[in-house]
UniProtKB/TrEMBL annotation:
Domain AB hydrolase-1: 32-251
Organism whose genome encodes this protein: Actinomycetospora aurantiaca
Keywords linked to the UniProt accession: Hydrolase
GO molecular function, one term: hydrolase activity
Keyword Ribosomal protein: no
Keyword RNA-binding: no
InterPro entries given in the database record: AB_hydrolase_1, AB_hydrolase_fold, AB_hydrolase_sf
Protein name as it appears in the record: Alpha/beta fold hydrolase
């Protein structure tokens, strides 16, 4: 496969007992492996704009995390189990290690993988994510379960008014994904973000790490991501100017530049 949109009808594989999901393996089969872990309540399609930037030089792997996309029927467990799922995907493809990229909720999963399975992570990229609790998402989970979520307000965090009004644009695509999401699974993932607390663990990450922040992100703020970069032994902080939370969809070229930069640049931090 050369990279691009993925059919919802892609074949499912059982990567662990009770967890069947889509696993998409594309790009250069002889290139270094890079695995992409999406945010909530999205699925592997959230990487569609980024994959063509990576696939000419990399073997690009993506999958639907538990509770999302093709695995929507599977409850969202703890971060340790979700990190082990990424290892199981690598095992399924006979990959000894990979450059692991996580966006938002997926970035928390990627952090856990780097801490608990260090031999399987060659390089780590954390995109618009957090390492400390974000309690407001616990309230949002309660609102979702009560049927009171305002999708327009949620989209307003990620897109300008002009982008939301654009017919056929990314905002419309994301609106459709939000409307189709399993509310309980989404709420479970939000509760994980509300309580996730790994900042003190980041000193254990021994690989070069990209920390990619968006200037206008109100949850994974540049200030918080700068704290994460300081806590990591070998990190480069990138702040994408005038950008919002969904940078893999909205600013794929700049995200690809950060992910593909030579690892030797990680000796210093920059923004």
């Amino acid at each position: 496969m050369t990279g691009g949109p993925v059919s919802a009808a892609a074949d499912l594989v059982e990567v662990r007992p009770g967890y069947r999901t889509r696993v998409v393996d594309e790009g250069d089969p002889g290139g270094p492996a890079i695995v992409l872990v999406h945010g909530t309540p999205l699925d592997l399609r959230a990487w569609d704009p980024l994959v063509p930037r990576l696939s000419p030089s990399h073997r690009v792997v993506r999958f639907d995390a538990r509770g999302h996309g093709s695995a929507a029927a599977v409850p969202v467990p703890d971060a340790t189990t979700l990190a082990a799922d990424v290892v199981a995907v690598l095992d399924h493809l006979d990959l000894p290690d990979a450059h692991v990229v996580g966006h938002s909720w997926g970035g928390e999963i990627a952090q856990r993988m780097a801490v608990e399975h260090p031999a399987r992570v060659r390089r780590l990229s954390l995109v618009c994510t957090r390492a400390s609790p974000f309690p407001p998402f616990g309230d949002l989970a309660t609102t979702l379960r009560a049927g009171g979520a305002d999708l327009d307000a949620l989209l307003g965090r990620w897109f300008t008014a002009e982008e939301r009004a654009e017919p056929g644009g990314a905002a419309g695509t994301v609106r459709a994904w939000l409307a189709a999401a399993d509310v309980e699974r989404w709420a479970e993932a939000l509760e994980m973000i509300a309580h996730f607390d790994d900042l003190s663990e980041l000193s254990r990450v021994a690989v070069p790490t990209d920390v990619v922040a968006a200037e206008l992100d109100a949850v994974a703020t540049p200030e918080h991501m700068a704290q994460m970069a300081e806590a990591l032994p070998d990190a480069t902080l990138h702040v994408l100017r005038d950008a919002r939370h969904l940078v893999p969809l909205q600013r794929p070229d700049e995200v690809a530049d950060a992910l593909l930069a030579p690892s030797s640049t990680h000796r210093s931090r920059s923004s």
